[in-house]
């Protein structure tokens, strides 16, 4: 029962908020990227650094001492799994092993109590910002274009892609099996399942192959979340040329119905309930891996990034226009794992990501959002040093390679530290984006997987924090203005 005084207070509060042009003190931050891009590590490190007062000199509110504290609160959406922050941090900190990667959507609310920088702001704002962090697989975003496609189109496009030289060998098994069935035969669950399994295996092979091909929809065949095995996921394209009417009860009719069910019951609700409610977005990309694999892989990453950014395009031409209630106003494209490079190369990596982002923004015709790019390491697993070779001091990175990693003929046990010459990214990044120049212009960066690092002391020496590279720059772009 609210008393009269309570109601008066609420009314006053509302008035004050209106007077200050007050926006609800919460922000929904989407974190995405293709699998293994570094989403789980990013969220864990971001939250840990804010809660424990990490070294964040480029995060203005923290640097000027205006953050009183940051703490976890109950998340607003009861039906979304919680991001398992404590488990992930425990893995990183106590066991020094990498946490389980993102497999489905999850959410975490981090609340920051702060003092506004301006007197005006201090008068009206409650000095509290809740950040609802929404972690979800980038694969799911790539389903958006399906909403505008019929099953017949999906079949034709899948066949055309499967026949491309880059994919033909990976698709051969599925294509052979699918071509052998008669779409007009009676619908049969076992046939549907066998084809769905083979199609999913082909999509997975594209992802795992060293050609580093980007993902094809349907995203849930790769990242099923909690829908594994459900009929809405038990479908595949039928590559045959379609002629005439579809016979009810046929295999084709069954596949078509399931494709439509996937769009209606999986893809649409995901966009409506989650994506359209985001205010800010970070897209993590594994640019180093693509650089290592050569220009074709970089071009492929660019294509995937373009498709991802297209989902955030507001207004006409976006399939979600009628669903959109708010719009994303800031997007950060971040290459993580920069700790695999010496710091002299961080700016080069950043320039490459910026170019990648610029090209993807142009191709996706994305407008209305501010887009920035950064090269960072959410969790810095290496330190820097020099090794004397002859008369020269060479820059190296030092870390503990994961058990089983090899350099030359040495195999590591997961306990021993070693120095690695990481290699250099090129100064002139133009040729990298020239997919036609098939000569790999990158003197390949040596890519050893390291164990997570030990904690280091915070700036005030009072707590132990996770080391990072430029995480503070990312935070400033994503949240800084809302803490002004
Ligand atoms: P997700 O699939 O996007 O959730 O990816 P994860 O966050 O699980 O990261 C995948 C893997 O990338 C981890 O297991 C680490 O090996 C590596 N990784 C992620 N972030 C970093 C980082 O900042 N530095 C280093 N050295 N490795 C990282």
Concise overview:
The chain is 36% helix and 16% strand.
Describe the fold and architecture.
There is one protein chain. This protein starts with a helix and ends in a 5-residue tail after the last helix. The protein folds into three domains: 21-136 and 277-380 and 468-483, P-loop containing nucleotide triphosphate hydrolases (Rossmann fold, 3-Layer(aba) Sandwich), CATH 3.40.50.300; 144-270, no CATH class; 383-461, no CATH class. By secondary structure, the chain is of the alpha/beta class. The protein is globular. The protein is built from 14 helices and 14 strands. Helix content is 36%, strand content 16%. The model is unreliable at 17-23 (pLDDT under 50). The structure holds guanosine-5'-diphosphate (GDP). Guanosine-5'-diphosphate (GDP) binds next to helix 2. This is YcjX family protein.
The helix-and-strand class reads: alpha/beta
Number of helices: 14
In total, how many beta strands?
14
Shape: globular
Corresponding CATH architecture of the largest domain: 3-Layer(aba) Sandwich
State mean pLDDT (0 to 100 scale).
Answer: 87
The CATH topology of the largest domain is what? Rossmann fold
**Superfamily at the CATH H level of the largest domain?**
P-loop containing nucleotide triphosphate hydrolases
Distance between the termini: 36 Å
Taken in chain order, the helices and strands follow as HEHHEHEHEHHHHHEHHEHEEEEEEEEH
Return Rg in Å. 25 Å
Task: Please list the strands of the largest sheet in the order they lie side by side.
Answer: 2-3-4-1-5-6-7
Overall CATH class of the largest domain: Alpha Beta
Portion in strands: 15-25%
Major beta-sheet overview: 7 strands, mixed
Total tally of structural domains? 3
Spans of at least 5 consecutive residues with low confidence: 17-23
The share of residues in helices is: 25-40%
| Bound heterogens, unique | guanosine-5'-diphosphate
């Amino acid at each position: 029962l609210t008393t009269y005084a309570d109601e008066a207070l609420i009314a006053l509060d509302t008035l004050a908020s209106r007077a200050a042009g007050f926006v609800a003190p919460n922000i929904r931050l989407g974190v995405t990227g293709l699998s293994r891009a570094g989403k789980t590590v990013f969220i864990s490190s971001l939250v840990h650094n804010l809660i424990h007062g990490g070294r964040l000199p480029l995060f203005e509110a923290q640097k000027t001492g205006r953050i009183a504290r940051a703490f976890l609160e109950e998340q607003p959406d009861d039906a979304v799994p919680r991001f398992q922050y404590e488990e992930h941090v425990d893995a990183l900190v106590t066991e020094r092993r990498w946490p389980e990667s993102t497999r489905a959507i999850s959410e975490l609310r981090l609340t920051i109590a702060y003092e506004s920088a301006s007197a005006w702001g201090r008068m009206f704002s409650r000095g509290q910002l809740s950040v609802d962090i929404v972690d979800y697989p980038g694969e799911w975003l790539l389903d958006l274009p399906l909403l505008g496609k019929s099953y017949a189109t999906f079949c034709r496009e899948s066949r055309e892609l499967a026949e491309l030289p880059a994919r033909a060998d990976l698709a051969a098994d599925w294509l052979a099996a699918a071509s052998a069935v008669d779409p007009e035969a009676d619908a049969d669950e076992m046939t549907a399942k066998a084809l769905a399994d083979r199609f999913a295996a082909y999509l997975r092979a594209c992802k795992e192959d060293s050609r580093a091909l980007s993902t094809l929809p349907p995203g849930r065949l790769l990242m099923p979340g909690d829908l594994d095995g459900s009929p809405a996921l038990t479908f595949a394209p039928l590559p045959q040329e379609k002629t005439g009417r579809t016979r009810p009860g046929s295999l084709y009719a069954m596949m078509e119905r399931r494709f439509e069910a996937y769009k209606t019951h999986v893809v649409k609700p995901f966009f409506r309930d989650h994506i359209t409610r985001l205010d800010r977005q970070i897209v993590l990309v594994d640019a180093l891996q693509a650089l290592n694999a050569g220009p074709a892989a970089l071009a492929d990453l660019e294509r995937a990034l373009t498709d991802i950014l297209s989902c955030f395009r507001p207004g006409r031409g976006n399939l979600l226009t009628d669903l959109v209630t708010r719009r994303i106003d800031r997007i950060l494209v971040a290459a993580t794992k920069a700790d695999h490079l010496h710091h002299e190369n961080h700016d080069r990596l950043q320039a490459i990501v910026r170019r990648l982002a610029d090209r993807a923004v142009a191709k996706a015709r994305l407008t209305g959002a501010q887009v920035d790019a950064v090269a960072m390491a959410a969790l810095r697993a290496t330190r820097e040093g020099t090794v004397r070779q002859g008369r020269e001091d060479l820059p190296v990175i030092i870390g503990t390679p994961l058990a089983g990693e090899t350099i030359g003929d040495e195999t590591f046990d997961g306990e021993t530290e070693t120095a690695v010459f990481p290699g250099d990214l090129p100064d002139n990044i133009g040729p990298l984006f020239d997919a036609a120049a098939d000569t790999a212009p990158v003197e390949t960066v040596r890519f050893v997987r390291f164990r997570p690092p030990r904690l280091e002391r915070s700036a005030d020496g009072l707590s132990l924090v996770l080391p990072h590279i430029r995480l503070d720059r990312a935070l400033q772009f994503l949240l800084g203005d809302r803490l002004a």
